[in-house]
Amino acid sequence: xxxxxxxxxxxxxxxxxxxxxxxxxxxxxxxxxxxxxxxxxxxxxxxxxxxxxxxxxxxxxxxxxxxxxxxxxxxxxxxxxxxxxxxxxxxxxxxxxxxxxxxxxxxxxxxxxxxxxxxxxxxxxxxxxxxxxxxxxxxx
Length: 140
Ligand SMILES: [Zn+2]
What we know:
Layout: H1 18-25, E1 30-34, E2 40-41, E3 56-60, E4 64-73, E5 87-93, E6 102-106, E7 119-128, E8 131-138
The structure holds zinc ion.
């Protein structure tokens, strides 16, 4: 069962991030890196911001991340979340994926126990129609 009900807006891939979402559909969390200089970037974009090269490669993220920042959402900004308050939106960083800050949900932990620096583990939320979204829960 998905974290949020079906009325939650789904990803709408565009030409820049379609590969990211195709990877997610296959339960692969990977980030775009410049094939010329290696600089990571997210969200995906057509040119490297460091050297302007268009060539890219995709690098798998490790299965764990660290909470860089987070907020606990108490206000239902969309009807899909009304029955799921409060929930956590976190900014995560991954070892080996320098410079990328990734926004996702952290589940399975009360807001009082969340901490900056907490290790979290990836899980895949099956939202139907072949799409999966990367979410996280405490690693231990
Ligand atoms: Zn580059």
